[in-house]
Amino acid sequence: MRLLFFSMCALLFVLSCKQIEESPEAATELMVYDMYQPSEMANLMNEMFAQNLKVKQDILDGKVPTEFPLDFLKIHTAELSDFKSRNETFRSFSKLFIESEKEIFNTESLIPIEERFNNTVNLCISCHQTECTGPISRIQKLLIK
Ligand code: HEC
Question: Using an 8 Å Cβ cutoff, are 18 and 138 in contact?
Fold first, then answer.
């Protein structure tokens, strides 16, 4: 069961990263891709990725991000892909992540913003280590070096 879970996770990741190469198989890959319906959670995750990429750029440009994107709260309710369910670990990671993400926008915090941002990205990664390891290398690119 666990193995099945991980292989489906890996498969979904492959399908979701749109790396369709020019190869004889390209046509069939394209068909498979078209059939893949991202879950509400997958859409939210992609949105969180894009949003945090913007926040990272703002931080690098010396701008202070002030508005926590309320959409992120959907992490508690968004529908997951069929084969996944919310367990305790998932719930506690969701909470930790949201608290940490909110800290990025706390203009009164004494912790340097780069550190708050990286802490949050590391929580994305921690949850993914328990849930879906596929996107981890992509998420690591968000870290501010
Ligand atoms: C509480 C656990 C958890 C946290 C925190 C979390 N993720 Fe995810 N992530 C998941 C799960 C579960 C999926 C698979 C969703 C599905 O297929 O329904 C996923 C999927 C993804 C995907 C693939 C989406 C797709 O198109 O299939 C990306 C990219 C992603 N997450 C990025 C992030 C980023 C960036 C963050 C932090 C800003 C983050 N995740 C935080 C659990 C988490």
Answer: no
pTM of the model: 0.81
Find the farthest-apart pair of alpha carbons in the chain and give their distance in angstroms, rounded. 56
Identify the CA nearest to 39 among candidates 69, 70, 8: 8
143 burial (CB, 10 Å; 0-12 / 13-18 / 19+) is middle
Q: Write the residue with the smallest CA distance to atom 41 of ligand 1.
A: 124
Q: How far apart are CA 52 and CA 120, in angstroms?
A: 10
Which residue is associated with the tokens 């002030």? 66
For residue 94, which atom of ligand 1 is closest to its CA? 1
Give the pLDDT confidence of 124-143 residue by residue, as tens digits.
999 999 988 999 999 999 99
Separation between Cα atoms, residue 53 and residue 46, nearest integer Å: 11
Number of C-beta neighbours around residue 118 at 10 A: 19
Distances from the Cα of 35 to the Cαs of 10, 29, 97, in angstroms? 16, 10, 31
141 CB within 6 A, ligand 1: no
User: Among the atoms of ligand 1, which is closest to the Cα of residue 52?
Assistant: 38
